[in-house]
Amino acid sequence: MFKNRFIKTLDAYIIRKYLGTFGFTLGIFLVIIVVFDVSEHLDDFLKYNAPFSAIIFQYYAGYLPFYANILLPLINFLAVIFFTAKMANQTEIVPILSGKVSFNRFLRPYFISSGLIFIVFFFANIYLIPYTNKLDIKFENTYFNQVDPTKSEVHIKLDKRTFAYLQTYNNTDHTGYNFILEKFDGDAMREKLIANRIVYDSLKRNWSIKDYTIRYINGMNERMEYGLGKSKDTVLDMIPSDFEAHDNIYRAMSTAELGKSIEKEKTRGTGVLVDMELEKYRRFVYPLSSFVLTLIGVSISSRKVRGGIGLPLGIGIFLCFTYIVVDRFANVFSLKASLPPIIAVFIPNLVFGLLGLYLLRKAPK
Length: 365
Description:
Layout: H1 2-6, H2 9-47, H3 52-89, H4 93-98, H5 103-144, E1 154-159, E2 162-170, E3 175-185, E4 188-201, E5 206-218, E6 221-234, H6 255-268, H7 273-285, H8 289-301, H9 310-336, H10 341-362
Antiparallel strand pairs: 1-2, 2-3, 3-4, 4-5, 5-6
């Protein structure tokens, strides 16, 4: 009943072509990605003796969703242009518009289809992709990046009055070396702790400070506490992952974890706040490209042109790569020129949305 009332024969026909072409194009792209990646990393798989099960269920299970997510706007755009230009070339669109069907009505099945893709795209960005990214990163850090993944010379602001410094950190036994903890009251230092070692207890979720010296300062009065050969347990607002140096760690965080990390970073100020906010906002805004690029794709490919589908397809590829370039430039301006991240992630969809509205006015009616 719902189908008969809201999904007419024309709608079902276009939706079937849209989703069928999209699925086929996505499958082709994924096969090509796997072929090129296997040829590039086969020596690494053999060199590090990566188990076949880990390659399939950890590396590619995490690798493919990530790149499918990145390429989805391009795949969606090419799919729309391909089957719409083919319909126009076979003179299917002219009788539809001549039969008192407005162009806006003609667009309805396109936006139903792109809406379905948007829903899948959106929830994948929020829930699935961070989990699969974690699988991929875990595999790469185990078999490809077999080097010390930790930072050195780390400065962390734990709260408004507490600052910590750690020279080196060993992720194997969760031990940090040459640790300094300073507490301030305004601009005046009130307490300074220096320790040779600091060890994280994953069960108790606290830190054990070894061989320490504490200097207490109260105006002109000072007091020293010596803990050489002693251990002092304390809770600090830092965890071992704060010392990991992987560039891709933020995309492996769940949306909830990313939100908490952003709030913590606002206090610490270690310089990665913009990267984290870009990752967060992209998860919510990037899926909107399915509507924007669908509008552009239909507008430029619904007119029958001499030469078949080659010209619309060429224009579509050019516009799609232009979209990616604009997206990259917006990110660079956010990272290097203080452009607010939420504005940066909206710029590609805003610019191409305006282009889509202009092309819609020029489309055949």
